[in-house]
Amino acid sequence: MAGPPLTPRDETELCEAIAEAARDGAPLSIRGGGSKQGVGRPAPASRILEMRGFTGVVDYDPAELVLTARAGTPLAEIRSLVASEGQMLAFEPFDHGPIFGTPPGAATLGGVIAAAVAGSQRLSQGAARDHLLGFRGVSGRAEAFVGGAKVVKNVTGYDLPKLMAGSWGRLAALTEVTLKVLPAPRTTATLVLTGLDPGMAVAAMTAAMGSQAEVAAAAHLPDAPALTAFRIQGFPASVAARCEMLSRALAGFGALQTSDAAESDVIWGRLRTLHSLPADAPLWRISVPPSQGAAVVGALRPLGARWLMDWAGGLIWAAADGAPDQVRTIAASAGGHAALVRGPESLRARVPAFHPPQDGVAALEARVRRAFDPHGLFETGRF
Predict the structure, then answer these.
(1) What is the pLDDT of residues 234-269, one digit of tens each?
(2) Whether residues 180 and 204 fall in one domain
(3) Which of 122, 167, 273, 331 gets the highest tally of CB atoms within 10 A of its CB?
(4) pLDDT category, 224, cuts 50, 70, 90?
(5) Model-wide pTM > 0.90
(6) CB-based contacts of 46, cutoff 8 Å, min separation 6
(7) β-strands 28-31, 47-50: how paired?
(8) CA angle 136, 138, 139 (to 5 degrees)
(9) What CATH number corresponds to the domain at position 95?
(10) Full residue range of the structural domain in which residue 147 is found
(11) Does any domain span residue 317?
(12) Burial of 184 (0-12, 13-18, 19+ CB in 10 A)
């Protein structure tokens, strides 16, 4: 039996819980808000290490654009706080709850960092790891440690934050994170081209990103009518000038239309919640070079896939019932990889969530995990 969840409230209790698990040889599954529990193989034998006791903002200095908060703090609370100061989490993290058919609000700050969750604005502002300055955590050795720093410029030692972002709880239990925040734009405009096929849409997005319009996000939604959307943001005069610049740059693809606020929210919301994709089909997150986006969705067509394209073609969310090896072959042939985000337990039990790495990469990953977690406490079989 896995036993009841462990609920430490501070680092001392967390170290004790991990040390006890090491003595018992009991694997631990780290859980924040549980919004992404449907990702990966079911791991019923592991004991839950509940991190929601680590809540609260430790320090926030809007003038320095730096925020430190405990890892179990709800993401919604952090976004509301920085918005009150006219700032934002520039990598645009989102809540996975709606993707799994549950209400939003469960996602935690540590969870989105551990899963490296980034939204449409990643295209221009970078990934979660690019904004993670530092962290505190407890390793599988039951030792508290610190990585990075609480300043933007830090060149001392190993860049451990880059390892923690996207580690999915396989290296350490995060207790505190320090993020770089940025000023929120004064004005945002969403411009839309209609009726483009995937190939033309990727060509238009490529032209937009190569222009001087400084596009913040670019995506293609194929449902009738097909929409290719571009987000421009900044000061009002600059946004107006760059919208005109983008219209000239994309004149060969059709006339750009400006969406109102409600339409804009719907467009970008569809890329956060994926509610327009069927909820009863396995969901794949496919990352490829943007130039290959159209080829990938074309190859997915025989599988009956429904899809959305973000990051100017570099990210494809696809709901496909086809054989998993076909999806991964398509991604690999385009120079990318495919992660299984959602599916029935029978599928997740036999198909790894992450695209299988090459042997050398897998060996390196294993050595890194053993350095942080020599007893394999965080190896629950989920990944």
Answers:
(1) 999 999 999 999 999 999 999 999 999 999 999 999
(2) no
(3) 331
(4) confident
(5) yes
(6) 2, 26, 27, 28, 29, 380, 381, 382
(7) parallel
(8) 125
(9) 3.30.465.10
(10) 1-184
(11) no
(12) middle
